[in-house]
Amino acid sequence: MRKIVCMGRVWVLWLALVPLVQGTAERAEAASACSIEVSPLTLELQVAPGRAQTASVEIRNTGADPQHIKAYCQDWTLRPDGVAVFVPAGRLPNSASGWVLLAPMEFDLAPGASQEVRYTVRPPAEASGEARTVAIFEAEAQQFVLRGARSRVIPRMGTILYVNTGPIPTPQARVVEFSVALKGGVLVVENTGVAHVRFTGRLEIRRSGELVQASDLKGFVILPAPFNQHRLEWPQDTFADLSAGEYEVTAILDCGGPSLLGARTNLVIEQKSAK
Description:
Layout: E1 6-7, E2 10-11, E3 20-22, H1 27-33, E4 36-39, E5 42-46, E6 53-61, E7 67-78, E8 84-87, E9 100-103, E10 106-109, E11 114-121, E12 130-138, E13 142-146, E14 149-164, E15 173-181, E16 184-191, E17 197-207, E18 210-222, E19 229-234, E20 245-254, E21 261-269
Parallel strand pairs: 5-14
Antiparallel strand pairs: 1-2, 3-14, 4-6, 6-11, 7-8, 7-10, 7-12, 9-11, 12-14, 13-14, 15-16, 16-19, 17-18, 17-20, 20-21
């Protein structure tokens, strides 16, 4: 059984890629029209510096119309709220975009058809640690009428690649902030290691040692520095059902390491005054 490491009041404790849409139409409207599926969505590769590794991903047209697809790599990172940000290849630290060759880079897909796209990853001889990229599969621009206005969108799907060129590192992280109040709560976790970390967890609320409420936390990924923090917020109604009293609130996280990670604080709910 893994132990929870405690340091005072604060305990020491990353993507499936959805359709990416550019244009003025709302994301939900555009995503529903995207008829391209990609498998797998995430790859974690172990490749020695100076060596090459080749495999493939599958692109499938699940719609009723033929699609012309372009394949290319981009850099990406995560905002503290977990939203992915994509930029041209080679712009971000720890970019593996220049290490990856895709073939074919352009092809047509009939309705119901699929295409294997081979990727070859070749880190340079001086590579060290983890790098990442995303292989983008972009369909042709499509026209939509939304609220009476014509909009242009570009459906895109992708496969995220993490490329590790050294020994698999042990996950390392710490809690930067954990606070709760009737108006909600905030948990900020920082990745202090050199590779991405995947978290799952739960929020427990106890009164006099007895568990009164528990809920699972949505899983998230934190990248290594410099984009190495994740901010999780609880809405105002999280503690609305609790009666007056003093509670102990604990966030427990699992990042796959030898120890569970978490933070603990107190919440005092005062008796509501009678009107």
